[in-house]
User: Fold Tyr recombinase domain-containing protein from Clostridium thermosuccinogenes.
Amino acid sequence: MSRGCSINSRNQRLAALKAFCGYVARKSPEKSALCQGVLKIRVKKAPQKPVEYLSVDAVEYLLKIPDRHSTQGIRDLAMIALMYESGCRVQELIDLRVGDIVFRSPNTVTLTGKGNKARVIPISTNAADIIKAYLNSTSICDMAHPVFVNIYDKPLSRSGVSYVLDKYGQMARNARPELYPCKLHPHILRHSKAMHLLENGVNLIYIRDFLGHSSVTTTEIYARCNPELKRKYIEQAGSLITESIEEYSESEKEALIAWLRENI
Assistant:
């Protein structure tokens, strides 16, 4: 009976079963034949969804909505600004400590991503000023203290980050529905930053390092999903075709015929 599970859920459960069968095969070799039947099951390919991202105008308008004169508003503004500026993952934002942000020229933030790999990301002066204003409003001095906390001074959870972004996303969509065709999720700001860097001619290798991807193959998804870049490259390729066609001279024709006789 079909349970209506998604392809990703199916593949995750299959991976868990395969890991268990691999363990059983090592501990009880007599069960290897049964385990091999499970290990041979192939993962199911899921259709690739287009990458959702915001335009530059949409990001700019989103940043205008939080009330920077209130404690909660300046926190939310600092969080959204940093998520876009650094292209960080949600967990990287949650794990961020005050000491990870350096306010000097250039302003930087150190993010710790998957595999405990750290990377240093430059941030603009405007974003740094917003984050500095937020930290000043909270009077946080401990360098090991989480940057973004809730009203109980506890680190924001993943659902808390999603709630904040969704709240302002709904407000932005109500005011400018043409800019926000989809529901906002935390990863959309990461996608948006990658797309905007790509549209401004930044090399994929640098974008890979910026996002903390282990392979440029992962980063290439942004190049494949951007119709504007495809149009640009197609036009560049088309410009190589000229209307004038130069005919072979008599000597070139004779040389070509001679070569064909010798090699065919």
In short: Strands lie at 101-102, 108-112, 118-122.
